[in-house]
Each structure stands twice: as structure tokens, then as C-alpha cells.
Specification:
Blueprint (H helix, E strand, L loop, with lengths): L6 H9 L18 E2 L10 H15 L14 H13 L6 E4 L2 H15 L5 E5 L4 H13 L5 E5 L9 H7 L4 E7 L11 H10 L3 E5 L11 H4 L3 E4 L13 E5 L1 H4 L38 H5 L2 H10 L1 H23 L5 E2 L11 E5 L3 H11 L2 E2 L1 E3 L3 E5 L7 H16 L15
Helix pairs in contact: 1-14, 3-11, 4-5, 12-14
The chain binds pyridoxal-5'-phosphate.
Pyridoxal-5'-phosphate (PLP) binds next to helix 4 and helix 5.
């Protein structure tokens, strides 16, 4: 695609952008900061700041314990039901609880126990490392009877789709993948792989962390079994905000929660000494929810529902396409490689660009150019597009900076070792 690489063209694209007004709904403290890390930590919605005041001053400060009956107790299901609208689930199939990693653990153990007799777990080497660690821990906990097959991506960018199809057989208990993978942004065909796994009698657990809030997901149409996802990325829920989990309604009766706690008990205030799981999605709760950070998820979810996930995706595709066109025109000639799928059907909402000096270019962007991308080893600079607040002008300026950093060797003053959080 030939595009204009001038700033005026980016300004034209912003002027035509029907979601442009949503940017004002976020706290933009430094208007010159080019924030391209919404895929790691979404920006703070203005409404969240307002919500934090009523939560702290009124609900906690004044109403105290009474607030549990005035909205706190039901909050995990109520906000879960809103997230359900973003992922094509029924309101009673999603609940907010714990972290993504912990939710994954609960559903993995529950699924493996349901699938007794089957001993293989399939995943890929593009999955988020925490997901693999959780799988390894679950296998150990269950007595070491399962085998983890980590299928390899053919090129480090695209998922090993053919290898997954070939590996699905009557011995596979569970297939678990990141729907959109964290490095390249490759996005699997959720419906097709779910159907293939079901044909083999396997359950499927999708990690939606890098998809939710960035692209439409239809779990119901896919007849998906299980899913987990993060709320602090494209949902803008705040650092470490609790995650969500989805269990298809008919599986809820059979799939147990291995961390059985009182919040998942059928009649918790009876203080019965014997655990009996709730007959609803609440059975996947364990302990008392972190109300402060849980409540602060809601305004960000509301913004996405207001904007409409189809419109968010349309803008995301245009913006990642624009970035790829800028890469072709400005960055490929100076050694950057595209480490994300070229075809928009197969990509999420971030673009990874590789460069042999990637880490030092990243440091120059952060320290000298007021651009915040992130970096994933060995050489990926990830440029996250969050359509509710990312502008075309920001994408343009970031690409121009990357070109200049290489042309003028501005990265040379930085060391080769990585800082702790990249
Ligand atoms: C961000 C992310 C997580 C985060 O897990 P935490 O338990 O919140 O640390 C998990 N899985 C994937 C695929 C992610 O992208």
C-alpha cells in the first residue's frame, strides 16, 4: 500500500476518525507523550477517577460494612456480565476474580479432572510464559500424569495451526492458547480451533488477555468451553486489576473449582463446615474480592461498550495497517523487520517491529523522544494501538522518531543490558 508519510496525512486521518472524541474521556496528563503501551497497561479513564472518589469517600468511608449489601457483594458477577457483552458470552457465564494466572490455574485443574483418562495438553511456544508455568504447576499438582506438548510456531510470528490440527487426537485433554499472542500479535481463529478440538473430544481454554477490548470475540457462536482474560490492558481497568473467567453454562455444573473457598460456597453465610459449590458462576470465586480495584474496572468497560467493539476493531485494523504502511515506507529501509502478521485478519491490536538494535532504540524512544512503546526480547519493539485514545498523529510521530533514531544513531549512547521492566 502506498501511503503519504507526511504529518498532514495523519492529521487528515484523525479528522475523519469517528472515535476521536473518546480520547478526551481519558486522563491525558502530558499531551506530548506518545503512549503506545495500552496493550500492557491501559490509560486511566476520567470516569474511573470519579468512581474512585465515591468508592473511597462514600462507600468505604461512610457506608462501611453496609456497602457489601449496597453493591459490593454482587460486583464480581455484575461487572462480569458487562465483560460478557464484549466476548459474546451470556451474563451468567463470566465472573471477575483473582489474576489471569490464578484463573487459568483454576480452570486448567478443573478441566483436567473432568477429562480423566486423557493425558495430553496442547499449547504453543507463542503463549505467555505465565500460562506455561501454570500448566507445568497443574501437571505436578495432579501427580505428573499429564504431558505438555508445546507446539512450535513455523516462523515465530504465526501460530502453528497445522501442527495443532495434526496433534489433536483422542488422548488430548485440553488445548489452551492465547487467542492473540503477546509478542507478534497473531490472532487464532477461535471458532475453527474450538471446533477441531471438540471433534477430538478435547476441551479448549482461551486466554483472551490481548484480545478483549481490542476485537470482537464470539464465545457463544464458537461454543467455547473456557476462557480467561486480563482487565488492565485494553479494558483500562488499572494496574493489577482482577481478571475474568468464562465457563460455558452447561460446564458449570461439572467443572469444579480446585481453590474452594467461602466466596464460592452455595450459602456462604450459613457458615456450613462442608463445602458445597454455588450453583452459578460464583462457584469460581475463592476469597473476598479486592473491591477497590474491582470497582475501578467498570468505567473502562463502559467506555468500550459505548464505543462499540466493532467500531473499535475497525479503527484498530486501520491504525495497525497505517503503521505497517509507515514501516514499509520509512523503517524497512533502515533494517526494521515486521514481526507481526501482514494480513489484518490474523493480527490483534499491536505491531511488533524487530531491529538488531531494538533494545537501545526502545530506550532512545522512551528517554529522548517521549514515546512509550514496550520491548519484548530478543528484539521486538511492540507498538500497541488502543483505538479509544491512540491517534494517527501519534503513530506517525513514533515512526518518524524510529527512523531518525537509526539515521542519526541516537541509540548508541544506551547500554545493551535491559532494565527490569520493559
Ligand atoms: C497479560 C497476560 C497475562 C497476565 O497475567 P497476570 O496473572 O495478570 O499477571 C496472562 N496471560 C496473557 C496471555 C497475558 O497477555
Amino acid at each position: 500500500m502506498a501511503i503519504r508519510t507526511d504529518a498532514a496525512y495523519a492529521a487528515e486521518l484523525d479528522a475523519q476518525d469517528e472515535l476521536a472524541a473518546f480520547r478526551q474521556r481519558f486522563v491525558i496528563d502530558d499531551p506530548n507523550l506518545i503512549y503506545l503501551d495500552g496493550n500492557s497497561l491501559g490509560r486511566l479513564p476520567r470516569a474511573t477517577r470519579e468512581r474512585s472518589h465515591t468508592l473511597i469517600d462514600t462507600e468505604w468511608g461512610q457506608r462501611l460494612i453496609r456497602s457489601w449489601n449496597e453493591g459490593w457483594f454482587d460486583m464480581p458477577e455484575r461487572i462480569g456480565a458487562k465483560i460478557a457483552q464484549l466476548i459474546g458470552a451470556a451474563p451468567d457465564e463470566v465472573i471477575v476474580a483473582d489474576s489471569t494466572s490464578v484463573n487459568l490455574f483454576k480452570l486448567v485443574v478443573g478441566a483436567l479432572r473432568l477429562q480423566h483418562g486423557r493425558t495430553r495438553i496442547l499449547t504453543d511456544n507463542l503463549n505467555f510464559p505465565s500460562d506455561l508455568y501454570i500448566l507445568q504447576g497443574a501437571i505436578e499438582l495432579l501427580g505428573g500424569r499429564h504431558r505438555l506438548n508445546i507446539l512450535e510456531s513455523p516462523d515465530g510470528v504465526h501460530g502453528p495451526v497445522e501442527a495443532i490440527h495434526a496433534a489433536l487426537d483422542e488422548n488430548v485433554a485440553l488445548l489452551t492458547l492465547s487467542h492473540t499472542v503477546f509478542k507478534s500479535g497473531y490472532t487464532y481463529d477461535l471458532a475453527a480451533l474450538t471446533a477441531a478440538a471438540h471433534d477430538a473430544g478435547a476441551l479448549v481454554l482461551w486466554d483472551l488477555s490481548h484480545s478483549v477490548g481490542a476485537l470482537p470475540i464470539d464465545l457463544r457462536a464458537a461454543n467455547a468451553d473456557l476462557a480467561v482474560g486480563c482487565t488492565y490492558k485494553y479494558l483500562n481497568g488499572g494496574p493489577g486489576a482482577p481478571a475474568f473467567l468464562y465457563v460455558r453454562r452447561d460446564l458449570q455444573e461439572r467443572l469444579g473449582n480446585p481453590i474452594s473457598g467461602w466466596m464460592g460456597q452455595r450459602n456462604l453465610f450459613a457458615f456450613d463446615l462442608h463445602y458445597q459449590p454455588a450453583r452459578s458462576i460464583r462457584r469460581y470465586l475463592t476469597g473476598t474480592p479486592p473491591i477497590v480495584s474491582l470497582a475501578l474496572i467498570e468505567p473502562g468497560v463502559d467506555l468500550l461498550l459505548e464505543a462499540g467493539i466493532e467500531r473499535v476493531r475497525a479503527k484498530s485494523e486501520r491504525q495497525t495497517g497505517y503503521l505497517i504502511a509507515l514501516w514499509e515506507a520509512l523503517l524497512q529501509p533502515v533494517g526494521f523487520t515486521l514481526n507481526s502478521p501482514h494480513d489484518s485478519r490474523w493480527r490483534g491490536s499491536h505491531i511488533s517491529l524487530g531491529h538488531p538494535e531494538g533494545l537501545r532504540i526502545d530506550l532512545a524512544l522512551i528517554n529522548d523522544c517521549n514515546v512509550l512503546p514496550d520491548f519484548r526480547a530478543p528484539d521486538n519493539i511492540r507498538l500497541g494501538v488502543a483505538p479509544l485514545y491512540t491517534s494517527y498523529a501519534e503513530l506517525h510521530a513514533a515512526a518518524v522518531w524510529m527512523r531518525r533514531i537509526v539515521d542519526e544513531r541516537l541509540y548508541e549512547k544506551y547500554p545493551r543490558e535491559a532494565p527490569v521492566v520493559t
